[in-house]
Write a structure and sequence with these properties.
Helix 1 runs parallel beside helix 6, helix 1 packs parallel to helix 14 and helix 9 crosses helix 13. This protein folds into 2 domains: about 250 residues, FAD/NAD(P)-binding domain; about 180 residues, no CATH class. It has a 6-stranded antiparallel beta barrel. The termini are close together. It is built from 14 helices and 23 strands. By secondary structure, the protein is of the alpha+beta class.
Length: about 450
């Protein structure tokens, strides 16, 4: 019977431990927290988006980096198997919009409890409040780990296999502090620079602060990157300059023609630092901080420019003597109106029957392309996941075993694989954890 150490008692760690124990291994899990699944507990706003019920072949479309690396893991233990596991172990699931899967109870604690009970039932030894200090290798093979329980001396213990499931660096308060990267580097692995992902954007425009707390539903968002991403055709800065000016017109039109790196539809939120919400978090998966970036917000994606112009004309004709700032109640939430008036460059006190066709068409373009300049992302403290990690070129995708140190395995967020929102990242944890656990237990 192989003696296996699993470092981390999160989603990947518990699944790896369970698979290894059920495959005949003698498994010990080391967890520096006082309980299992601290990060699972906060996922999906505390509801836990367990996986996504999409067709397994479509799953890889949502993997942003290294999707091919996941083929063996995901096909070997796919979303239907994950759902079947939880259902058979007494945790009923439901499928919501976007094929997102949640526990019927809407409590992430039920997911943790179900998984941990299965781990204990399989005979796994779980050591809480225990920190691993190093993973040791000798002659290209795993030798063991050194660890210490709270206020106790450091212990060195030999193992036949070690599975690193320490997560990335996002939400460090849950214990994800990058330990796995250090373990991997110490035995010869290279690390793709970890960066925050599924994370809010900070933007340059001051008017975003004025909209703090405003949530917009059913809007469109495009993100452009590169040298022209923050500039108009004349090199002007597209930072929310009034659309009535030449600079504003260029900004509203989106500057040079280029293909957006992200084009989405859904919900977003204005904050004291910039923008957040599902649309923005997904856009952050495509963001390259080494390139300039701008966002174009479409406030009326269901209407093209011609249809929107007719809509505005009808509103103006219904009350021709109204001043501009009082004529927009049917178009925008009240909090957004002053900002849109300012960005338009149109005199707020101007009667709508005096607004020129040029001004109106410029306003239409602004509504369809509200520009925002990305200055960066929030920190790992606010990132749902980590982009980057242990280089996949140094891991065997058919087993999750290191190509550098035999007997060393990786699973979950510590690997350089990340996905969009919707339960896809937890599926990475389940699939890679299951494959690593089974592989580590094989004689």
């Amino acid at each position: 019977m192989k003696k296996i150490a699993v470092i981390g008692c999160g989603a990947a760690g518990m699944m790896a431990a369970l698979a290894a124990a059920e495959s005949g291994g003698s498994v010990t899990v080391f967890e520096k927290n006082e309980k299992p699944g601290k990060k699972i507990y906060i996922t999906g706003k505390g509801r836990c988006n367990v996986t996504n019920a999409c067709d397994v072949n479509e799953y890889f479309d949502s993997v942003r980096r290294n999707p091919r690396f996941l083929y063996s893991a995901v096909y070997g233990y796919d979303n239907s198997m994950v759902m079947d596991f939880f259902e058979k172990n007494g945790c009923r699931l439901k499928v919501e919009r976007g094929d997102r899967v949640f526990p019927v109870s809407d409590h992430s604690s039920d997911i943790i409890r179900t998984l941990f009970n299965a781990v204990k039932k399989a005979g796994v030894n779980v050591q809480f409040d225990t920190e691993v200090y190093s993973v040791e290798a000798l002659g290209g093979s795993i030798a063991g780990v050194t660890y210490s329980r709270k206020d106790e001396p450091i212990i060195r213990e030999e193992f036949d296999a070690v599975i690193i499931c320490t997560g990335g660096k996002s939400y460090p308060s849950t214990g994800s502090t990058g330990d796995g990267y250090r373990f991997a580097k110490d035995v010869g692995h290279s690390i793709v620079e970890p960066r925050p992902s599924l994370v809010p954007f900070e933007v340059a425009e001051n008017w975003c602060t004025d909209l703090q707390g405003l949530s917009l539903k059913n809007v469109g968002l495009k993100m452009y990157q590169g040298e022209s991403a923050g500039q108009g055709k004349d090199g002007s800065d597209a930072k929310g300059t009034p659309a009535g000016t030449e600079e504003g017109k260029i900004a509203a039109k989106g500057g040079k023609k280029q293909k957006p790196v992200y084009d989405g539809f859904g919900e977003m939120l204005f904050t004291h630092f910039g923008v957040s919400g599902p649309l923005v978090l997904t856009a952050s998966c495509f963001y390259d901080r080494d390139k300039s970036a701008r966002l174009l917000l479409d406030l009326k994606p269901a209407l093209n420019e011609e249809q929107l112009d007719k809509r505005i004309l009808r509103d103006f004709d219904d009350a021709p003597n109204k001043i501009f700032r009082n004529s927009l109640g049917g178009l925008f939430p009240s909090k957004l109106i002053p900002v849109m008036v300012e960005l338009s460059g149109i005199d707020p006190e101007k009667p709508v029957n005096s607004i020129t066709r040029e001004e109106r068409l410029s306003f239409v373009k602004l509504i369809k392309n509200v520009p925002m300049t990305v200055t960066g992302t929030r920190s790992f403290n606010e990132a749902i996941i980590t982009r980057g990690g242990v280089n996949v070129k140094e891991i065997d995708p058919s087993t999750m075993e290191s190509k550098i140190v035999s007997g060393l395995y990786f699973a979950g967020e510590v690997i350089d694989v990340d996905t969009e929102t919707g339960g896809f990242n937890l599926q990475v944890a389940w699939s890679t954890g299951h494959l690593a656990g089974e592989s580590a237990a094989m004689e």
